[in-house]
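[Amino acid chain]
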Amino acid sequence: GISARVDASEARSSDKMWTAIKKGVPVRLEIGARELAEGQVVFTRRDLGKDGKMKVSIDSCAAEIGKALQQMQKDLLARSRARLASQITDVKTLKDVRDYYAADKTGGLRLDYALVKDSPEFAAIAKEYAVTTRCLPFADGGEKVIVAKSY
């Protein structure tokens, strides 16, 4: 469910907003005399900032916030997956791995696990460039491995 906490302090609204931002509050509600007179509340999605400010009726507030939280989850997951995908490069050979890290590039590399497993050549690359195996993605059925530098 959705839980709420009311800040009934005498602090200025800008200070209250900044406190909520620092705490990581996902949805911030603003309910003042003007909003009550209009029968509405203003809520702001943390992930969109000022662009995430919306007015909704008091009656539909809980439902709208629930929808907003679900959309936030979808948006954050999509952004995270896109960032992850942008950080991984597919390579075919251990020479490609060596060349990639010799060029001082960053990010992970995806290659056949058979090339890495018990490979003295990969062990030499790993030692020279501080590269380690990170994971075997489920999507690849254990046939691919992600390798990356240690920083």
In short: The mean pLDDT is 92. The chain has two domains: 13-85, 87-149.
